[in-house]
Amino acid sequence: MSARVADNQISPFFTSMELNDFPRPANGASPSLGQLLKHVGDVRKDVTGDGGETPAHHALDISDASLEPRSLPFVLSFNNLTYSSPGGTKSLVEFNRTWLNKKHSNPNDASYRGASDARHVVPLREAISASISRGKLVSGATNNNPSPNSMVPTFANPIWVEMAVLANRSMKNARRLPELFGIRLGAVMVTGFILATMFWNLDNTPKGVQERLGFIAFAMSTTFYTCADALPVFLQERYIFMRETAYNAYRRSSYVLSHSLVALPSLVILSAAFSTTTFWAVGLDGGLSGFLFYFLIIFASFWAGSSFVTFLSGVVPHVMLGYTIVVAILAYFLLFSGFFITRDRIPAYWIWFHYLSLVKYPYEGVLQNEFQDPTKCFVRGVQIFDNTPLGTVPGAMKLKLLESMSKTLGVRITTSTCLTTGADILEQQGVTDLSKWNCLWITVAWGFLFRILFYFALLLGSKNKRR
Hints:
Layout: E1 4-5, E2 14-18, H1 33-48, E3 59-63, E4 74-77, H2 89-103, H3 110-118, H4 124-134, H5 148-151, H6 159-176, H7 178-198, H8 206-225, H9 231-246, H10 252-282, H11 287-313, H12 319-335, H13 351-356, H14 360-371, E5 377-380, H15 395-409, E6 418-421, H16 422-428, H17 436-461
Parallel strand pairs: 2-3
Antiparallel strand pairs: 1-4, 3-4, 5-6
Protein name: ABC-2 type transporter transmembrane domain-containing protein
Subcellular location: Membrane
Pfam family, one: ABC2_membrane
């Protein structure tokens, strides 16, 4: 026979027992483990009269009331005893009730009155929940308040303490695996380098406009695709989260808030890396103010994409299924963003998906940031024939065609005449319904919305309270 003492592990089979009538040694020393086990067996035989074996595989919370106000709660975990109770927890509970009734059968006894005044037994369910959430065993010694709810609060710590502990744990896990963030940062840097060298220093021509549109669409969609690495984070922690919240170790809101705050620093670094790699190399317009907005919209895109993937991780049960859903939905977002087909050309029965597309808002925001200057011209004179069947004709023929058009229209058109400005390009792309700052705020709002949905997914998807 062996017994193990555990001070921070609670068996699912739990009952509370006071051994106040245990005969104390003359020298006042605490009884040994063998004496306690023998006493439990003797009481069991005296109460039941059947000489049955002591219940096994249970944990007993034994407090010595004679040492008030300093109580000594501890747990005896009988894991390897050679006998067991066929009735399970029920027999142990019935035995405890019978033992308590026998012990306190004389209300006139002074020891009974003193024990009942000094102690209030915590109910089983509350003791288990409070023990797990506080990380220690809750003894029967309490204050004089008879309300169990006031003795054992639902949560042991306030929300900000829970957030601090959870955030500290997440940061420790991140520091233990720095290669995860390093690989993600490297992927963003490599993508930015490829885009920068592919679209190097774009000019203000019709071809340059088309290349700008392609770069912006691909860059914005890339920020969302690189957020897919957040999918397995919660899926790996799901069972830990369910076990800890089952005993009210912390609030679900604390987990969501701490998870969001911990993710922000890495998103800032990724946004800064991608922005500095691409903005100046591609030759985007706007100067320093344009770069700051470009950085903010990239950061908002990372925030919205990370929140979206985090929400999906709280809904889907498997990593591969989650990756399939993420890739498919992000492809739909890009399709309906307005790059492949403009807003005014999207069928009416699909226009609702256009406004649900996460890529739409950062894409349109960067477009407006790039083409907002009314003095900047992108098509001059004979450039009007570019990207048309007449683009391959000799230059002299283009000049004659330009003169013919001038006579027909009654407007003098030269090789330096501006024919298309940034506002014209925005109108051609159907980017006229929202300002660039509205696009930024809407993208940020999408991130908060998906975090809220993630909270409700945890609230509804983890109803695993221990009974």
